[in-house]
From TrEMBL:
It comes from Artemisia annua. GO terms for cellular component: small-subunit processome. It comes from the Eukaryota. Residues 61-74 have a biased composition (Acidic residues). WD repeats lie at residues 152-193, 213-254, 255-296. Pfam families: WD40 (PF00400). Residues 1-79 are annotated as: Disordered. This is Transducin/WD40 repeat-like superfamily protein. Its main location: nucleus. Belongs to the WD repeat RRP9 family. It is found in: Nucleus, Nucleolus. Gene3D superfamilies: YVTN repeat-like/Quinoprotein amine dehydrogenase (2.130.10.10).
Amino acid sequence: MNNKRIKSTKSTQKPKKHKPDPFFSGDKPRRKQKHASDDDSIKSSDSEDEEYGEKALADVADVDGGGDVDVEETAGEKRKRMAEAYLEKMREMARREIEEGDDDDDVAGGGDVEERVGRMLHKQQMEDSGRARRLIAKSVQKPKTTDEFRFLVKHRQSVTAVVLSEDDSTGFSASKDGYIIQWDVETGKTQPYVWPSEEVLRSHGANELQGKAKKRSKHVLALAVSSDGRYLASGGFDRHIHLWDTRTREHIQAFKGHKGPVSCLTFRQGTSELFSGSYDRTIKLWNAEDRAFVHTLFGHQSDVLTIDCLRKERLLTVGRDRTMHLWKVPEESQLVFRAPASSLECCCFISDDEFLSGSDDGSVEHWSVMRKKPLHIIKNAHPLLTPNNLENNGQNDDLPNGDLNHAPESVCSSAHSWVGSVAVCRGTDLAASGAGNGMVRLWEIENDTKGVKPLFELPLVGYVNSLAFAKSGKFLVAGVGKEPRLGRWGSLPTARHGVAIHPLHLS
């Protein structure tokens, strides 16, 4: 009987249905594989509002002097204390402005202190999220005769990358000989980074030397610094991304995975997410805080040259395949923009929906996410002047976009006129571009119908391989050398290797 009962139980038991894993069956999967296509679309997101709140609270961590805090304080109590301190700081600013009668056009409107604080917070949130643009280009005054690029830091070989910390007080630069230097913007005091031994590099995650190689290349092509200023990332010919602690200037991690030289790096603003581009045609995402690899993006058909990222999870890349890609990272969707008749060399965001690029034909392009072709092309942006045109000092500021009728003596066929770097002062309408023709040019980015307007030319001999604006727009930093960043052609023997700084006076 017992055997029959057991047999009966087995025969009547129904097979269980397999429940799919919720990670794969969710309505909105985190990552959905899509083929790179010109028809892919990117939709905007308001996630930066939450990130802005986190950033605002973090900014006041030191408001109360970093005094003693109860050990039993919970996370919620800490957030409340930081928020109250931040609001009190804003109230003090509002009271001071009311007493001094200082009415900012964007904040003015009367009302009591609380109303003014609300308007100030709204304006700051819009600017930090990239949805409002500070119009400072028109207030940039013409450089005085005494204003010029002043060399702040010296390097032994051509500088390939220059970056500034979030508060603009500290700068970082790297050169082809592998030297990475941290320097103070005000005093110019330098502190070098020392490469660790081969044993330490391997213990930090680096691959072993391949073949008959006795030492690894220290040639650095790219730098990036995190928003909190804790991490500095470097990449170059050794195919690794090296992570450094900026407080101790010590090497802490080597990320391996790229099969070609690492040509460009960027941190997403306000996060520890690090993006890298390589000659292996891929873009990789890393987490500096967790010291971990996250994901790989595919789409370029040739070397990835330049990369940029703002606060949103959007990524802008340029490759030798004459295309520029705008990525929405979580979904891996991308828009592909094709250059009309030249190879793109560099790019940067103006806002989440607009961006700037430089080409090897000497032109600067203004793009919008709404069009696959440039909104405006500024041809002959960095002409190599012929002897007959030197007496004009290259002043072609009156030329409309793309018009060369009045400048027949200027040519852009030489490598000296290739636009090797572009930069935008974050959240503003002020931009700059650099080449090897002896001039850094400032531009005003107007609306879609008016394009890009030339402002001033700042003389600087050498290849301008990297540019960085202060967040305030009060100065511009350039990394220069005798050779371009990605090659050794067209050397300029009279140029100097180093980092130069130029003041910008705002009215």
